[in-house]
Amino acid sequence: xxxxxxxxxxxxxxxxxxxxxxxxxxxxxxxxxxxxxxxxxxxxxxxxxxxxxxxxxxxxxxxxxxxxxxxxxxxxxxxxxxxxxxxxxxxxxxxxxxxxxxxxxxxxxxxxxxxxxxxxxxxxxxxxxxxxxxxxxxxxxxxxxxxxxxxx
Length: 152
Known about the structure:
The protein is mainly alpha-helical and about 150 residues long. The chain has helices spanning about 5-20, 25-95, 100-105, 125-130, 140-145. It has a domain at about 10-85. The model has no long low-confidence stretch (mean pLDDT about 80).
């Protein structure tokens, strides 16, 4: 790095005063200052870009490590599931009453529930006795029902 002390700065200032002149020196000093500021900002931007690229590379490495770990966990889980399915099939084959039950796995049976019909835990007679609403009211019906009565 350039080693500039106070004595060297004074020598540069004296030479600049003689060469440039006292009337142009402030304008030149301002121009040099702005150029140095621009150079410093440019260097700072380059440093920030290099740091961002290094962090991005580190994140990419971390991403690949996490992906490989997740893949290995997934493979181990799939292997465990396969072994459990084989054990279950073997147990089902041993406990089954023939080859037909082992060959056809049990299929899903719908519970024959009518999904349109609501089944409540509270009986209807209890709801009717205690005034529990069993039907939804529209907005207009609700206003008509709960509107205060007018006195004539």
